[in-house]
Design a protein that fits this description.
The chain contains 10 helices and 8 strands. The protein has about 260 residues and is an alpha/beta fold. An 8-stranded mixed beta sheet has the order 1-2-4-3-5-6-7-8, covered by helices on one side.
Length: about 260
């Protein structure tokens, strides 16, 4: 099996190169018109910051949206517009950046996201929903594994939505990406959500596009089966547009999560 091909998304998406600049443009436009607190620090590092978007009036709760990029690419500035659906439905939204491989290992990124969630929870009251895309899907799933979040923060998490998540990291050791990721067997096991038990009482919905690579359909199914949770396969969606529902306050996903 060609593991690099199996986990290659852009090569199989028409116009893939146009997505990042479009995300960046739409995110900047949203920041210009939104009520935002930018660059809120959750740690000491240059990238240890999140942007917080607030609705009009008191927030019903907090969404933390964690971006993807195989733990090696992007920052919070590309994704601001995906806060729109939740904000227009009365929720506050935090979008964190984090350090990237090879500067840090995945286990350290997990700790950083836990710090970001913890800090954001000091600024917004109410229930907490965690959603993340691809590598971000892995990271939000890790948040409800034992010992990752402080108990008082974990108790506020009502739902987690891993979108096209990487649930079993062992296959990535066989890809060229691992030169940067530096995964070994011990870290792959410890950091794979499907080998951990989720916190009891937290609703989990795994979301994946029907037109995604077979490897990502497998990863989503593995997590759903391991955690005995809902799996939603979105018709006609691929790895880059499966997150579009978060930008639309009238989407089924937004209505389900933020009503």
């Amino acid at each position: 099996m060609d593991w690099d091909d199996a986990y290659s998304n852009g090569a199989y998406i028409e116009g893939a190169e146009g997505y990042p600049p479009r995300w960046e443009q739409e995110a900047a436009a949203f920041r210009d018109c939104a009520e935002a607190e930018l660059d809120v620090a959750y740690g000491d590092g240059e990238r240890h910051k999140f942007d917080l978007f607030r609705p009009r009036g008191a927030a019903k709760g907090l969404l933390v949206f964690v971006h993807g990029g195989y733990w090696m690419a992007f920052d919070k500035s590309y994704w601001s517009h995906f806060a729109r659906g939740a904000v227009e439905r009365g929720w506050a939204v935090a979008l964190p950046s984090y350090d990237l491989a090879p500067d840090v290992r995945i286990s350290e990124i997990t700790k950083q996201i836990a710090a970001a969630v913890t800090r954001a929870c000091t600024l917004v009251h109410g229930p907490v929903v965690l959603a993340g895309h691809s590598a971000g899907g892995h990271l939000v799933a890790r948040m409800i594994c034992d010992g990752v979040l402080p108990e008082d923060v974990a108790a506020r998490v009502s739902r987690v939505v891993p979108i096209s998540p990487l649930a079993d990291l062992r296959p990535l050791m066989k890809t060229a990406m691992n030169v940067k990721l530096q995964l070994d067997a011990a870290e792959s096991d410890a950091e794979s959500p499907m080998w951990q038990a989720p916190r009891a009482g937290v609703g989990v919905t795994v979301l994946v596009g029907a037109a995604e690579r077979p490897a990502f359909l497998d990863q989503a199914r593995w997590l759903s089966e391991a955690w005995d949770c809902d799996l939603v396969v979105t018709g006609g969606r691929h790895h880059f547009d499966v997150i579009d529902a978060f930008a639309d306050p009238d989407s089924d996903m937004a209505r389900m999560l933020f009503s």
